[in-house]
Structures are given as structure tokens and as C-alpha cells.
DNA sequence: CGCTGGTTTCACAAACTTGTGAAGTTAAGG
DNA sequence: CCTTAACTTCACAAGTTTGTGAAACCAGCG
């Protein structure tokens, strides 16, 4: 843990966290560079870093930073900010925004539902296979609704425990 | 095998479903062969297929089948069954079992939680970064619990709408 | 206007992944 | 026990992904 004197961030400790959390994200399917960039932002005090800072901290080229943040911005996991009167960009992680992004695997689930619906249609609801697909579809529709409610409950829970961040 | 003229399975339609559902799974991060094998099982009437049937239907080698089912079995998405008095294996998808497997991204979430906990410890709960990590950790712990409850509700919902499959 | 710090795009080499044929292993059935 | 059907492992070729250096691009500032 860092001590008070000018709050020297323990570079070593931060790096250890970044790499280990990024590794988990990679395991869950995220690409390596976006995962590392995201972890770095998450563990920065201000919640923002510039391209240069990211490049230096992670030892990667400007090109890699550029690719990673483009991806993260598309997924709404980070926001881009231009600091006024400068050519520098800052990238920021909003906690709330990133939860939303996570649960917005919604797009993914919608894709599954579409494919399943077509399957049910073409195999017919009468066959055992058709019924299995219909049930699977029902499961995803159920989950969809429940996740939305769950996020509502989380916002309340969060408010109670953390105030608004 | 010849079709009884009552219920001819539309091979073309099944294949179309298999490929389109598998494509969705791939997009969500699953490997190609496991995704195709899984989709094929899901859309079979009996919910089971032998290695040979899988190989023929998907036009892939025995080696590919072997690799795919090993993966799926590890993830508890299919069960292996040996038909008694035969060298043939059958692979089966249990609907319930596969929902469980899906929500058992739990293993994944546990990994994230572990990494975050270490991060909170080493960065210290006092710093802004530490607090951000702590909140993120709290979110995952919250989700963990909620998902378990959601699955309970699903089982009831399912029972009502589908009887026990 | 053109210089300059900063970001993005592009082509490519290196690393990794994927699916295959073929050899190896296992066990049922003669 | 030996044969043989069925599954698994292995080494590799083909294909894909990844991150880089270098060039192109952009926008503030003098």
C-alpha cells in the first residue's frame, strides 16, 4: 500500500494488478491490448490517462494504444476527451458506464435470440428439437428482462454503499 | 438413415440453423468447432449424437470432433455417454445442464474478483484508484448473488411454461 | 501559412491458432 | 489373444491475429 508522503504510487504494485486483471479479461475473451489499457485506466487515481502515459506504462507503441482505445471506445468502456487547447487526448473510465457496457452483452444475446427464433421457425415447434430451441430462446428472453431489473437494483445498492462516485 | 415419411427432418434447414447459431457463439468468443458441435446437438431431436454423426453432419475430421467434445465436456455443456456394449460414444446436451454452464461463467467472475481483491489490497482502500477497484469488486459480488437468485426464478418460470423437459 | 507535437493508418513479420492426416491407443467380439 | 472399430494424440501446414515501425495525417501555435 502506498504511503502518505506525496502519495507515491507503487508502480510495481499497479503493474502487477494491471497484468493480472488484464489476464483475466483476456481469458474471458477480450483482446490483449484493450484489456491492458482498460486495466491501467481502472487502476489510475484520476480514472484518466493520456496516450503517452498509456504507452509508457504498458511499454507499447502509439499504434497499439490507438487500436486499443478505438476498440474500448466503440464498446463504450472508455470515453475520449480532448483536453482543451492541446493536441493530447485523454481516455477516461466512468465506473457506471463500464458496468452498462458489460451488461450490454445485450447485443450479443439479441444475436443468439434471432438465430434461435429462426431455428424454431424452420424446425417447427412440434419436433423435440424445435421445442428445445424454443425453451432455450425463452431462457434468453427471461435473462434479458432480469438483467435490466438487476441493474436497477445495483444502482440502488451502490448508492447506499458508495454514495455517487 | 431413411426418413419415415411422417417427419422428414429438413437437413438443409438444420444445417442453416447450426451454422448461424454457431456463428453467434463464435462471435461471443467460443471456438469454431465446439460452437458447431454444440449447435448440432442442440438442434438434434434426441439431444444426442455420436462422433460419427457429428463428423458427417459437420464435414469435419474425427480429430476435430474429439477436440470439440473434450472442450464442451470440460465446460459441462455436454455429457459423454458410452452406449453399453459398443465402442461408440454419444454426446448429449441436457438443457438444464447447459444453462448452468452458461451462468458458470462464475468461474470467470471468480477470477476477476480475485484479481480485484488483490488490487484493492495492494493499492490500498484509501486512494481513489483503490476505491474504484473496491466498487468494481462489489459490483461483481452483487452480480454473483443475483445470478443465483435469477436461476432459481428461471427454474420456476420454466416449470410453469414447459413442464419438466 | 508552415512547423511541430500528437494521433491514426498501413504493410508486414512474428507468433499463435486451427483443423487435418496419420499413427497410436483402447477395448469389444470373435 | 488377435482383430478391428472407434476414439485420441501428435506434428505440421495453412490461415489468422497481433503489435510494430514508418509514413501519413491533423490541428494548434507561432
Task: Write a concise synopsis of the structure shown.
The structure is a homodimer of 165-residue chains. Chain A is mainly α and 165 residues long.
Provide a descriptive summary of the structure in words:
The structure is a homodimer of 165-residue chains. The first copy, chain A, is built from seven helices and three strands, in the order H-H-E-H-H-E-E-H-H-H. The model of chain A is unreliable at 1-6 (pLDDT under 50). The first copy, chain A, has two domains: 11-93, Orthogonal Bundle (Arc Repressor Mutant, subunit A); 105-162. The radius of gyration of chain A is 21 Å and the shape is elongated. In chain A, strands 1-3-2 form a three-stranded antiparallel sheet. Chain A has helices at residues 11-27, 32-42, 51-58, 62-74, 95-103, 106-123, 128-162; strands at 48-50, 79-82, 89-92. Chain A is mainly alpha-helical. Chains A and B meet through helix 1, helix 6 and helix 7 of A and helix 1, helix 6 and helix 7 of B.
For this structure, what is the CATH homologous superfamily of the largest domain in chain A? Answer: Winged helix-like DNA-binding domain superfamily/Winged helix DNA-binding domain
Number of strands of chain A: 3
The oligomeric status of these chains comes to homodimer
CATH architecture of the largest domain in chain A: Orthogonal Bundle
For the largest beta-sheet of chain A, the strand count, sense and barrel status come to: 3 strands, antiparallel
Q: Tell me, what's the shape of chain A?
A: elongated
Label this structure with key terms.
homodimer; 165 residues; mainly alpha; Arc Repressor Mutant, subunit A; 7 helices; elongated; DNA-binding; DNA-binding (chains A, B)
